[in-house]
Amino acid sequence: MAEPVRRTRRATARTRARTSAATGLDGVIHERARLGIVSALAANAVLSFPELKELLGLTDGNLAIHARRLEEAGYVACAKGYAGRVPRTEYRLTPAGRRALAGYLEHMESIIRAARGGGVA
Question: CATH code for 25-115?
Answer without folding.
Answer: 1.10.10.10
